[in-house]
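Tutorial handout. Part one gives the primary structure; part two gives the three-dimensional structure as tokens.
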Amino acid sequence: MNGCGGSAPDSGANVIRFWHFWSEPGQKAVLKELVAEFEKEKNVKVELTELSWNDGKVKLQAAFNSGAPPDVIELGSDWIAQFSSSGVLLALPGDGNALGRFVSYSVAPAMWQGRTFAYPWTLDTRVIFTNQTLLAKAGWTEPIITMDQLIRAAELVKESGTDGWGANGADAHRLYKKILPFMWTYGGDVFDAQGKPILNSPENIQALSVYAQLARAGFVETQRQLDAAFVQGKIALWNSGSWLSKKIYANKALKAQPIMMPGVHGQPGVSFAGGEYLAVSASTKNTQHARDLVLFLTKGSTAVRFCAQISEAGFPAEKASFSDSVLIADPIKALFARQLQHARMTPVHPRWLDIEAVIEDAVVRVLLGEETPQESMEKAQQAALQIVGG
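Part two.
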């Protein structure tokens, strides 16, 4: 824990504790600079504490359970329902209509039972990175716009002696972000309109079949290993995030080009959108300043500065700043902005993390050859029904 001003924080009503996940030195410096402006404007002290994605959620839960949570909390989009449904977050001003300044699909995770418990801060998505050298060597010269083209290109590269596709295997909290876009693109979903799981739908079974087909045209590994393999020029096609851009630019020999998620039936593909949200603890003793900090950081002009200096932060969730010229001057970044217009977030459910694990397990069983896509999705459907009480 460290205070932005560098000295010991004051105690009392003018101190806010903010727990966040921007733990790398450069990220911390940017956040510290912005928070220092807020401190000066509001005459308040902000104590910053960095969390890691590996154990940050556990630490937050422990803090709430012990009765000593931070005042302001950064939460991933798929965590909010679990916290807001538990009554530990403060209801913030405004209903869904009042959140109209944000990208439309980012609003649902902020809500629980018609009330607002968080504000969207940043958004990001995934695109397909292509190695133009490997594709050309395999004889593929067409644009990849459809899923059929993606499959044919990957298989052609495999036939040429190189891996055509990188498939996430067992990789908790990451694999689901790779299979959901296939499910959505083929017209599938996790729940129906009434909230009942529909994992065994024909569309989802087809999506898993395609994912497995692509895996056979490449190799299966963790995201970290596949990111490294792509930058080293070992994979022709790989679905990843904006954090890869710096490494791609650093390798001058790598001719990499990002493309949108391929589609089917003449419709664009749908990618995964993740988001960072800011919430306030229900037990805060400094409600006004905590709310003010959330408003300050989620304001478009502040978020643009944050995202411009931290490329992996993505884009402001405020739609007026979503495609700010400062952010999309880079061609890779510009494509991510386009993909965010054809992206979705995970469903809002208090037990999403359990359902997420069910989906990931289903994919792994198919990749290991233990079950067919239909068998695996049927089993996943039964497990999901048990979770939601169906």
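Part three, for discussion. The first strand starts at residue 2 and ends at 3. The chain has two domains: 2-124+273-344, 126-272+348-388.
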